């Protein structure tokens, strides 16, 4: 196991601002980087992008600290990182969906409490020509159907993310993380409340979007669009999350086959083999990545 000094020397050589400190007070305005990553684009207010210097994968910082305490995890407590009920159906949503592995959400919550941010992949999960999981431009996302054909559940798929060191945690986005991302986009005026909550048709690849190709497109295609420097949040592939409703998994963002769509909406669909997998070819996933606290 690396000593603390070895870890500091390693990151210093890589010119990466990641140095472990028990006393440091972290801020969303100066996001701590994931190990091996460097800043490549944007600001905390517009979408702060870091890139893994070895694999090319990109991640965007979600600045939780700057948000109002209008979220909730337990339905009553008001927090910055938590569920939002954008469509005024909060009680129905609260009863119907919850994070599947609650310890996953707690791990992200602890990280956010310390570092004031979490990261979400800029692109959907894909496999490069060596079979490595990456989040890069130009590759076609790996569908849930393909994951099952490889005998790999999405949860396990994301454990291979960039071969990150042990101090980094990755998972499917909990509902709280996805809602917090939507809140950050609205709060920082990257997009309007209406565009995120009521009609996202013009933000990405939906059937009725302007110049839609009416088919699935690779990561980074201009038709997918960028929201807060994140590609494909609106349309193209639907996005599997860590939420469940009974035996159903929840996915977000709609996909290209919908006439129009809403980023903040939730949808429930089985993705078990023999039923969901044979039919659902338009759902993929991205990762939430954070430093362990």
Q: What order do the helices and strands come in, and which of them pair?
A:
Blueprint (H helix, E strand, L loop, with lengths): L3 H10 L23 E5 L6 E5 L5 E6 L26 H7 L1 E2 L2 H14 L1 E5 L4 E2 L5 E2 L9 H6 L4 H4 L10 E4 L3 H13 L5 H5 L28 E2 L2 E2 L6 E8 L2 E5 L13 E4 L6 H4 L3 E2 L3 E4 L2
Parallel strand pairs: 11-14
Antiparallel strand pairs: 1-2, 2-3, 3-5, 4-11, 5-15, 6-7, 8-15, 9-10, 11-12, 12-13
Structure characterization notes:
By secondary structure, the protein is an alpha+beta fold. It has eight helices and 15 strands. It has a six-stranded antiparallel sheet. Strands 4, 11, 12, 13 and 14 form a five-stranded mixed sheet that branches. A two-stranded antiparallel sheet has the order 6-7. The model is unreliable at 1-20 and 273-279 (pLDDT under 50).
Q: Could you give a short description of this structure?
A:
22% of the residues lie in helices and 20% in strands. With 293 residues, the protein is an alpha+beta fold.
What are the key terms here?
8 helices; single chain; alpha+beta; 293 residues; disordered N terminus
Tally of structural domains: 1
Mean pLDDT: 81
Biggest beta-sheet profile: 6 strands, antiparallel
How many strands?
Answer: 15
Helix proportion range: 10-25%
What is the distance, rounded to the nearest whole angstrom, between the alpha carbons of the first and last residues? 18 Å
- Strand-residue fraction? 15-25%
Order of helices and strands: HEEEHEHEEEHHEHHEEEEEHEE
Structural class: alpha+beta
User: Which radius of gyration do the C-alpha atoms yield?
Assistant: 18 Å
Low-confidence runs: 1-20, 273-279
Number of helices: 8
Taken from the alpha-carbon principal axes, the silhouette is globular
Strands side by side in the biggest sheet: 1-2-3-5-15-8
